[in-house]
Amino acid sequence: MADYTSSTAIPGADPYDADGPTVRAEGLGDIAVSLKQPQLAALQLLRVHFRRLSGAGTDTASLTLDVDSHKGAGFDTRLKTITGAGVSADVNMRIPRDELDAWTIGSRDALQVNWTNPDALGEIAWGLEAWLVRPR
């Protein structure tokens, strides 16, 4: 699992007021990204773009967002499952301000983003951007 820790949360409550996303990651094959912050943070925006590099095959699968709690597996929580994410089905998820509390992770917790590449040869590339903000 790739582990991405930002030294500072993006200031403010609007990702468009900031210089850019808190985390950027890209790769081939499966997505297994762990987003961490050194302080309380909330996910406000998640974008994932998928593109087929070559060949043909199955293009979509479920993308999951989970809290990995420092308290242990008994406190891990599935926040959302997005079915049918993949080529020609990008993820563009913005959390409304009045729902940020439900998307807040503690300073010792992580937000896990997972997607299993449905292509047997792993010929789907992806790019992920996530905006984490300090809750108000």
Layout of strands and helices, then pairs:
Blueprint: E1 2-5, E2 23-28, E3 31-36, E4 41-52, E5 60-68, E6 77-86, E7 91-94, E8 104-105, E9 110-115, E10 124-133
Parallel strand pairs: 1-3
Antiparallel strand pairs: 2-10, 3-9, 4-7, 4-8, 4-10, 5-6, 5-9
Textual characterization of the structure:
- This protein is mainly beta and 136 residues long.
- The chain has one domain (22-127): Jelly Rolls.
- It is built from no helices and 10 strands.
- It has strands at residues 2-5, 23-28, 31-36, 41-52, 60-68, 77-86, 91-94, 104-105, 110-115, 124-133.
- The strands form 2 sheets. The protein has a 5-stranded mixed beta sheet with strand order 1-3-9-5-6, with no helix packed on it. Strands 2, 4, 7, 8 and 10 form a 5-stranded antiparallel beta sheet that branches.
- Strand 5 and strand 6 (77-86) form a beta hairpin.
- The radius of gyration is 15 Å and the shape is elongated.
- Residues 3-13 have low confidence and may be disordered.
Count of the domains = 1
What gyration radius follows from the Cα positions, in whole Å?
15 Å
pLDDT below 50 for ≥5 consecutive residues: which ranges?
A: 3-13
Q: N- to C-terminal separation?
A: 30 Å
User: What's the main sheet like?
Assistant: 5 strands, mixed
**Spatial sequence of strands, sheet with the most strands:** 1-3-9-5-6
Number of helices, where a helix is a run of at least 4 consecutive DSSP H or I residues:
0
Mean pLDDT: 85
**Estimated structural class:** mainly beta
CATH architecture: Sandwich
